Amino acid sequence: MKVHSITPRIYAIHADIRSDDLFEGIWPIPYGVSLNSYLVKGEKIALIDLVRDWVGAPGELAGQLAAARTSLSDIDYLILNHLEPDHTGWLGEFLEINKKAIILATAKGIELVNNFYFEHERVRAVKNGETLDLGAGQVLQFFETPNVHWPETMMTWALDGGVLFSCDGFGSFGALGDRVFDDEFSAEEHEFFEAESLRYYANIVASFGLFVKRAVDKLSNLQIKVVAPSHGIIWREHPEMIIERYLRYADYLEGSREKEIAIVWGSMYGNTENGLQHVIEGIEEEQVPYTIHRVPNDNVSWVLADAYKSEGIVIAMPTYEYKMFPPMAYVLDIFERKHVWYRKALRIGSFGWVGGAKKEYEAKIAQLKWDSLEPVEWAGAPDEETAELLRERGRELARLVKGA
Ligand code: FEO
C-alpha cells in the first residue's frame, strides 16, 4: 500500500469510502468520501484521528501505517480532534491492539470518549495552546475550535512543516483515489471538489458559520503551509484557497450570498410545474442564474447546497390535504435547521378545491426570516392572466436578487 508524505516525518493516510450508506445517516455520498488520518513520527509516534470500521477503513489504516514502517501497536499518542464516530468508531478495536497509546482530546472530547467508548483510563485532556513534544523536532500544538462542528472539536498544529490538522473544518465529500494533494488534481477535478465541499459544508457545517470564522481568527497568527483536513483534499500548494472558500461559505449565513436563485419545486399533476415555467421565463429575462431541484426526486443534500449559496429562492408546490406538499415541508424543515435564513423568496402553487399551504408556510418562513414577495396561488391549471403574473413575479424576484 502507498502512503503519502507531507514532510519527511508526517504522513497522510486515507481510506476512500465508497458506499450506499448515508453519511451521518442522512447525506448520500455517491462519489465517496475519504477518511483522513495523519501520522507524525518523532521519537514518540502520534496518530491524528482514527476511522470507523467502514468499508475496510481499518485495513487501509494498518496497511498505510506499514508503508510508513509503523504498526498500530507503535502509536504512543492517539490525538482525537473530534469525536464523531466516523473518526473514532474503531477506537475500541484500536485499544485492544495497542496497549500503550494515550488518547489526547479536549476535556469535552474526553467526556465523549467516556460516553461513546467507556474508556476512562488511557485518556488525557489537553488545553488550548498546549504543546506536545514528540522529539526529533516534532512539536504539536492544540487549538480548541469549538463547534466546527461539534463542541469538543480542536485542531492540531505541527510546528515543523506548518501543517494544520483541521479535522472536519476545510473538509469535503468525494473520494480521493491515489492522489491526495491539491497540486495533483486538474482544474476540472477541482471544480468537482468545490461542488462537493459546498455540499459538505451546507450539509455538515452550515449551522456553525460563526464558529468557522472564530476558528480562522484564532489561527490567523499561524504560518499555515498545509491544511490537512479529515475529509478530502490536502492543501499544500494553495492552503489559502480552502480557507477562503470556507470563509465565503460562512458569509452565506449572514449575507454576501451568490446573486443566484435556487428553485425548489414539487408537482402532483403538472399544474404547479406549468406555472413555474412562467416564473423561470421571468427570471431568464432578467438574466439571473438559477439552479433547479424537484422534490422529492432530488435529494435534499443537493437542494440544501444550492439554497445555501443563493440569495433568492422560489418555492413551487401544490397544496396537499390543506397543507404544504409534504416533501417540501421536509425541505423547509432542513432549511430551518441548517440556517438558510434571510433569503428573498417567492412561493407559488396550484390547488384543487381550496388553498391551505399559506398558513403553514408562513409559520415556517417566519422562522427562516425570509423576505417574501406576494405569493401566487391558483385553482387548477394556470390561465393566461396567472401566467403573466407568474412571469412578473419571476422578474421581480430576479431584480431583487440582482440588487442585493
Ligand atoms: Fe467527519 Fe464530524 O465527523
Describe this structure in words.
It is a single chain. With 404 residues, this protein is an alpha/beta fold. The chain has 2 domains: 4-251, Metallo-beta-lactamase, Chain A; 258-403, 3-Layer(aba) Sandwich (Rossmann fold). Helix content is 36%, strand content 24%. The protein contains 12 helices and 20 strands. The protein has helices at 57-67, 85-88, 91-97, 107-117, 187-205, 209-218, 239-252, 271-285, 300-309, 326-337, 357-368, 384-403; strands at residues 4-7, 10-17, 33-41, 45-48, 77-79, 102-105, 123-125, 131-133, 139-144, 154-158, 163-167, 226-229, 258-265, 290-294, 310-316, 319-320, 323-324, 344-351, 371-372, 376-379. Strands 1-2-3-4-5-6-7 form a 7-stranded mixed beta sheet. Strand 4 (45-48), helix 1 and strand 5 form a beta-alpha-beta unit. Helix 6 (209-218) runs antiparallel to helix 7 and helix 10 (326-337) runs parallel beside helix 11 (357-368). The radius of gyration is 24 Å and the shape is elongated. The N and C termini lie far apart (52 Å). The relative contact order is 0.10. The mean pLDDT is 97. The protein binds MU-OXO-diiron. The site of MU-OXO-diiron has 8 residues, from helix 2. In the N-terminal section; belongs to the zinc metallo-hydrolase group 3 family. Residues 261-404 form the Flavodoxin-like domain. Pfam families: ODP.
